[in-house]
Amino acid sequence: MGRKLTISCFRFNPNIPGDKPRMQDYELEEYEGMTLFVALNDIREKLDPTLMFDFVCRAAICGSCAMLIHGRPRLACKTMTRTLPSKFTVMPLPVFKLIGDLSVDTGTWFRDLQVRAEAWIHTNKKFDFNALEVRMENETAEKIYDPEQCIECGCCVANCITANIRPDFIGSTGINRVYRFLIDPRDERSDADYYDVIGNEDGTFGCVGLMACDDMCPKEIPLQENLAYVRRKMAAAGLKLKFQGVKIS
Amino acid sequence: MELAKNLQTTINRSHGKTDLYVDLAQSISGVLLIGFLWMHMLFVATVVVSPELFNTLSEGLDRYYLAQVGIPATILLIIIHIFLALRRAPVRLRDMRITYRMAKMMNHYDTWVWVGQVVSALFVGVMASIHLWIILGAWPLRAATSAVRVASSGPADITWGAFTFPFFIVFYVIFLIAGEYHGGFGLYRILVKWGWWERHTMGWVLKGITVIIVGLGFAALYTFTQIAANLPAGGVIH
Ligand code: HEM
Ligand code: SF4
Ligand code: SF4
Ligand code: FES
Asked: Do A72 and B1 touch (CB under 8 A)?
């Protein structure tokens, strides 16, 4: 027989007039290989159909199920309940707009980020439908793959004190996003163009270096490295430094 | 959050380099201060080797005007650093609450360390001012005067009957730990933000250095108490 789990869930629906934020306990039995995603679905099926939470892929790909689990932002679908104590709390991510209970709107925030970070390939090349695609060095492709794995779950925004107290800060995911284009040879933007986008306090120079993002990214993206690279690169661009032969970033 | 386009952000944008300069200046002020602090502690610790060495060094610094230039420069640097670094601290009550709540809930090591850095900064700020005031009030600086200041009972010590609260020893122990903690982890943060190195190894190296420096500081404080105990009754100067 599995453990008895007590999951203490944050409950609040801003759309119900007079509803008050509170914690509600649900008790259920744990079984082999149970993830929090499964547990929450069990609760909704058997105990309380009104509990709101998001999921789509249940395989750590869509980024919808991020929430504060036992105090830390994680993906519900990637969190095995056996790694948690038998009683723990579940809360919605901070920073993002609360839709209700455990569900938040990360979409609006990330949409705004894409626009502000100009997160698309800027190129003047005409696209030719008939030509073969230009090949990319394997090494470059692998380098890009690494920041590209971001699933926009918002964990690194929720656990960043800077993002919590400065609403305009683009967060680790934003800086990582720019990094992704910065190292992509297909993007024709100059360092000065990138500087215009994130060479400021809301961008790369706003990061305090708390590294919660680096420690808790569910995709294990090496955010410390990527953030420091962008910071050096942007500082060099701002100061118009060119070190011949010296690798500064 | 919304698209940040209003008069203020538009105007700020046209000062495109300021944010970079300020961020760089903050890190540079941090590096210079930690360089100063570690050198300072090494100099003070020469008293452990011999008071004569301490005096020779101190006289040398005076003779070549290194102290006369260095001290005002350091004070200026601290003031600049306070202005630059306080930008980052949670200053509104709302921000302090969020910071504390998140740090407590996540119980994340580096986040707690940063909270500790902001708190230790307040200690360092107040105590450095007191420290400088006292040092400059009894110039020049020699092993014997320092010993009296640190360890013999002075006007700041509080006596209840047979019990004396050794104000300055306690003061310097707290100051030493707060200063080294603040500076050591500050350097860690600078290297994390700018550097190439894996931060866990780097953290251990910096913790090692900090422990050594704090150890030197304790040794120096102990030596001062010994010197004070052997001074002729009545001491020299307060
Ligand atoms: C001996 C004196 C001091 C030394 C060696 C020192 C050193 C440092 C260093 C190396 C940093 C990291 C800077 C960075 O991340 O770019 C830092 C950060 C900081 N310092 Fe100091 N500092 C000193 C005194 C002070 C004082 C007196 C205050 C204010 C009362 C202060 C307030 C701060 C704050 C709030 C931070 C955090 C800034 C951030 O996280 O970005 N420091 N300090
Ligand atoms: S960087 Fe990591 S934590 Fe941040 S949004 Fe992307 S996947 Fe989530
Ligand atoms: S390093 Fe810290 S301040 Fe910078 S983005 Fe990550 S959590 Fe936020
Ligand atoms: S449900 Fe898609 S990441 Fe968890």
From this structure: no
The C-alpha of B196 sits at a distance from chain A's nearest C-alpha, in angstroms, of 7
Instruction: Say what angle helices A223-238 and A191-198 make with each other, to 10 degrees.
Output: 110
Q: Which of these CATH numbers, 1.20.1300.10, 3.40.50.11480, 2.40.160.40, 3.40.225.10, describes B16-230?
A: 1.20.1300.10
User: pLDDT value at position B73?
Assistant: 93
pLDDT of residue B158: 61
Residues of chain B with pLDDT under 50: 1-3, 234-238
Topology of domain A4-104, CATH: Ubiquitin-like (UB roll) (3.10.20)
Round to whole Å and give the CA distance between A178 and A21: 37
Distances, alpha carbon B220 to alpha carbons A133, B54, B168, B178, B210, in Å: 69, 11, 14, 17, 15
User: A98 near A92, Cβ under 8 Å?
Assistant: yes
Number of other CB atoms surrounding residue B171 within 10 Å = 16
The number of residues making up chain B comes to 238
**3-state secondary structure (DSSP) of residue A104:** strand
Which distant-in-sequence residues (6+ apart) come within 8 Å of A147 by Cβ?
A176, A177, A179, A180, A183, A221, A226
pTM summary value: 0.89
Cα separation, A204 vs B111, in Å, equals 18
Domain range list for chain A: 4-104, 117-238
All structural domains of chain B with their residue ranges: 16-230
The interface predicted TM-score of the complex, written ipTM, equals 0.89
Assigned superfamily of A117-238? Alpha-helical ferredoxin (1.10.1060.10)
Q: Which residues of A touch B114 (CB under 8 A)?
A: 161, 208, 210
Q: Under an 8 A CB cutoff, do B17 and A228 touch?
A: no
